[in-house]
Amino acid sequence: MKILHGIDLAILAGEVVCIVGPNGAGKTTLLRTLSGLCRPSAGTLRFKGEPIGGLEPHQIAARGLGHCPEGRRIFQQLTVEENLVAAFLPGRGHRQADLFDEVYALFPILPARRHQPASRLSGGEQQMLAIGRALMGSPDLLLLDEPSLGLAPLVINQIFEIVIRLAERGVSILLVEQNVELSFEIADYVYALEHGQIRTFSAGRGERGDDPAMTIERVAVVGGGIIGSSWAIVYARAGLPVALSERSQAGRERLAGRLRDMLRQASALVGDEQTQEAAAARIAIHAELGAAVGEADFVHECIEEKLDAKVAMFGELDRLAKPAAILASTTSSFPASRFASDLPGRARCIVVHPATPPHLLPVTEICPAPFTDPKVTDAVFALMERCGQVPVLIRAELPSFVLNRMQAALFVEMFRCLDEGVISPGDIDKIMRDGLGLRWAFLGPFEGVDLNAVGGIREYFERFGFLFNDMAKDLGLAQPVVTPQSIALLESYARSRLPLAQLPERMQWRDRRISQLRAMKQQAGE
Fold this sequence. Notes:
By secondary structure, this protein is of the alpha/beta class. 46% of the residues lie in helices and 14% in strands. It contains 21 helices and 16 strands. An eight-stranded mixed β-sheet has the order 11-10-9-12-13-14-15-16, with helices on both faces. The protein has a six-stranded mixed β-sheet with strand order 4-5-6-1-7-8, sandwiched between helices. A two-stranded antiparallel sheet has the order 2-3. Helix 9 runs antiparallel to helix 11 and helix 19 runs antiparallel to helix 20 (484-497). The longest helix is centred in the last third of the chain and has 21 residues, at 503-523.
């Protein structure tokens, strides 16, 4: 049975490349194939320009490819030093004593344990030893398979710092890792593997922030419907001149009144009548597309949600907009690869998808395509923050992105309960309006769960994670959704934001905020 299909990737000296994906995607098989533990049935494996596909594992290791497998795979009965000696490759041009010094310098805890059996080491120390064993071969390319598996957040951070230090020394790193957030922080490039195939490719830390920022001072919005009007207000209230293109004459006739009405209804966010008028005055309405987009630094397409229409529109925008202008779509369904992949200027195309309407709901999904210039992503993030939005990065081109998928998952379960007669539509609305909605008004779901157990989010999911895994199984998912890796990632996230000792204080803050919100709703008669 074939596990990997059509894999095509390259790693340069000193780069960190990360492979992410669900369990069973083929990540470990990929590393085992590279190191010779599995034989490819087709294709070519080259290392430093030479084919290695038919070589034995020890021959590949002798050429400078080290493999630290999942689960550590150290010799438990041997001492730390004996484990390192066993992994030494004398033909690589380095003295054993020098490599000992390098490993012990990277992992200062190991010299003190050098005469202890590996079985007596902690999980973190065993992982350090496993990496140290791989380094005793003086590799030019190091394969790391799930190095954070089962480790505490502090140890995970130490391991990832070592990865960065190795890359700075010129060692290439191919990392398989479930901790996606940290992977993007240290990786130059990230590949998403699914069903044995590379589905998406994204730039990581190596492609962000190194170049001068793009300047956005003029905005064009294409489409004067509800979403286009809302985006025009977002940009105009931030002080930017906006050219709003609407081809329909009837639509243009309605626009000025609609914009003023929307600004008035949002006065709590926009400001007084004078401020509203100033924002409205920054929006110029155009009939001709070229006149609207010709001088814009940022063009935001907000037309109907039809793929053929977006393909045609982006073809026009790529021709009419100035070469340096960013071309964004507010699509809620189609990744940029679906409508921009054949354009000469595709590197400037990106999805900027809001919660609706964006002038009231600030969260905004930013989803670059694999071909999007990272400078474009950076510039869009800066623009959204300048305009008071809350941008979130979607790292893979999922259809409908994440916001809609989360909402859809909730609706699917609501419809299932509704169709089975478990509950009425009105009571479902009550659950959301008078239950989850009150809690989520101030806290995200993970932030909220962190406050539901004395030991925080780890304790909560270690106690109740089976409930979510059982539900996932009922929905036909083959793998658990709550795993040791996901719990470790969530604990790292939660504790980086709020130390465990401050949970009681945060609980009191939550209770005060919910009480205030309920009181406000009662005063409003709701």
